[in-house]
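Pilot study result, target chain (487 residues):
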Amino acid sequence: MHDLFYQVFPKEYKKILEDEKKLARSTSISITNVDQFSDIVEGEDRYPEDILQDTPADTMLQSEGFDSDESEGFMDEPVALDSLVSPFSLADVDIENLVPNKLLHRHTENALDKTRGFIKYPRHKVNYRKPDVRLNDFDEVYNFPEIRGSLKMQAARCMDCGVPFCQGNTGCPLGNIIPRWNDLVFKNNWREALIQLLQTNNFPEFTGRVCPAPCEAACCLAISEDPVTIKNIECSIIEYAFEKDYIKPEPPAFRTGKRIAVVGSGPAGLAAAAQLNKVGHTVLVYERNNRVGGLLQYGIPSMKLSKKVIGRRVTLMEQEGVRFVTDVEVGKDISAKLLMQENDAVLLAIGSTRPRDLPIPGRELKGIHFAMEFLETFQKFQGGYYKEFDEVSAKDRAVVIVGGGDTATDCLSTALRQGAKSVLMFEILPLPPQQRSEQNPWPEWPVVFRIDYGHDEFKTLYKKDPRVFATSAKVRDLRKMNMTVRI
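Predicted structure:
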């Protein structure tokens, strides 16, 4: 049997690959011209000494057709090719390892393997700042420096899967061209990655922070491994673009003369306004609150979405020609009839503002609030709209949260920062399994046990999980408990 062929069990192949990698690193080889291999006598154990010489990286790149001056991060020093060429005779060398590629400008230890990245590299799981640190402020919970430090390795995990389930009906509802911009990030082509991202997403800085990421649940890698960190890559592309000043106001080249009124400045209203403005219509957005953003501004806590991020986008839209009118409630401050008369079209994007109530005895008691009432009031208090916040404040109170979804988690995290004495979450569903069940196959959304940012913060303080599962048959009476209930 050939020396390089091994009979291994499936679980042993990674060890064999690592052993081969260590052996290849034992001798560092640099070459200038692959054609010189033709002078090697068949059967020689080593390469001739006269071809083992250092070569500047830009020479290799120019031979491939790249201009080193236009590429970011290219090296001016010799490059070791031990990760590409093994110190065996040519008869033992895979021809694919002799073909120059775009990674030659990197040090060996930094040359990431895109072809086998999904096998070699684990998912980066450190997304948040430490709980004991972030509990002391209302800043975003995300650990952006840590996320960016592993971005290219995570992009290398994106497979050439043929049929990308991460986009389309099974994954991203926006149809983001995810494999394309993952590959562009890996290649350090951030500007083109931005162009691809903005083709399908008006506000990736929002979705990259608060989206539940169905794309990751539908990632083909998620069949057997942890999925690619698509959400982090998406957010990093747009933030890098803002930092590098790639994002500039782009007013339409001409105006159609049509005037459109958009009622509501939440995610839908903003997206509609942006698209209508791009085609040249004059757009006026009416918002009943004092600030633009709707759910983004008042529903989602600043720990998940900084209000500065919202303000940055609103300012950009204003520079592009969109007009915002705040503190105006249609039907009260201005009639619908007048809107129809003054505009060529009216778009209603008022959102889902009616919460689902619990018609149970005692619902009318004092101290019971809807989640949005609790979150919105506090967001307005933080923004200086309210001077007092005592009525719905959780400070020094025992809090019960009825529900276990994202909104409930936002209420939990907000209550902890306000100084709640205790928090208890009632989840109607049973405790989810740690792994997918047979009745929940990929690429369906995985119904598994999760620990979100708020749960992690509570666990840091109280060393336990705040949730009580399957409570529909357990919770009978709260009369003996001195608690404030958030619904």
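One observation from the pilot: The beta strands are 259-263, 282-286, 323-325, 345-348, 368-369, 398-402, 422-426, 467-468, 484-486. A full batch analysis is planned for the follow-on phase.
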